From TrEMBL:
Keyword Zinc-finger attributed: no
Keywords: Lyase, Magnesium, Metal-binding
Residue ranges occupied by any HpcH/HpaI aldolase/citrate lyase domain in the UniProt entry: 36-217
Coiled-coil regions listed in the entry: none
Transmembrane portions of the chain: none
Record-given protein name: HpcH/HpaI aldolase/citrate lyase family protein
PANTHER family found in the cross-reference section: CITRATE LYASE SUBUNIT BETA, LYASE BETA SUBUNIT, PUTATIVE (AFU_ORTHOLOGUE AFUA_4G13030)-RELATED
Pfam hit, one: HpcH_HpaI
Essential cofactor(s): Mg(2+)
GO molecular function (one): lyase activity
InterPro entries reported in the protein's UniProt record: Aldolase/citrate-lyase_domain (IPR005000), Citrate_lyase_beta/mcl1/mcl2 (IPR011206), Pyrv/PenolPyrv_kinase-like_dom (IPR015813), Pyrv_kinase-like_dom_sf (IPR040442)
Keyword Coiled coil set for record: no
Native source species: Glutamicibacter bergerei
Amino acid sequence: MAFRNRRAAALPAKLSRSWLLVNAAREEDFGPGLACEADSVIFDMEAAVPDNKKAFARDNVVRALSNGMTAWVRVNGTDTDFWADDLAALSETPGLRGVMLAMTEKPEQVTYTAMRLRAGTPVLALIETAVGIENATNIASAPGTFRLAFGVNDFRKDTGVSDDPMALAYARGKLVIASRVGKLPGAIDGPPAPGANAAKVTEETLVTASMGMTGKLSLSSEHVDGINAALAPSEDELSWAMELLEAHAAGASVGDGSYLPRLARAQKIADLADSYGLWNA
């Protein structure tokens, strides 16, 4: 049985825009989550699950990933009693695509996590505290780190800042720069509020894009389409790229020093459009 959305399953995780978190204690939600348009799906064994249900949720995930499903998994932080058991249980599951490490504050936490999994398993470092933000560059360069993600709500609890984009700009910018320094794919922003309407999701995701982040977490499958659209090339960008590439193929001459950079950007937009299935959307 095919569980995963085919388009999303074929998309490299380095290009994933929407990252849907699914409560690992609710096994009945796994199938619908995997079938939706989310570029990547994360079974969440951490924040969504109380301590007395951790083992139950872990068993759900292991069973799903051993019987045809494929997904990322958010594991508990290294300073908890659950981290080692999470990794031991996941290390042999054939459907594990990678793990999201909660409460990442130091580079060695990522490396220790990667060492307990099958060789090459990517680790998405979820940074949720002031300490993590200040260590982001080192975390991005740590062996095993695949991408950085921003745990906005816990960061706000830790620091007392508001949800105003200006108040969060330093942290977001830090993750973007750290990702670039570490030669990682673009950073992933925190999620819209669960009850956010479509307009609010688009508004927040445009802030994400303006900061240079290329992915966004989601707590609801209803937010996935808005996130995907706002983090994909726009219709104007697609038209511009197509016109430039067609002119270049027809023999357009180099006009000035900006031509080659513009051509490279047009090709990048075209490649993303192919990956996201936008040309004929």
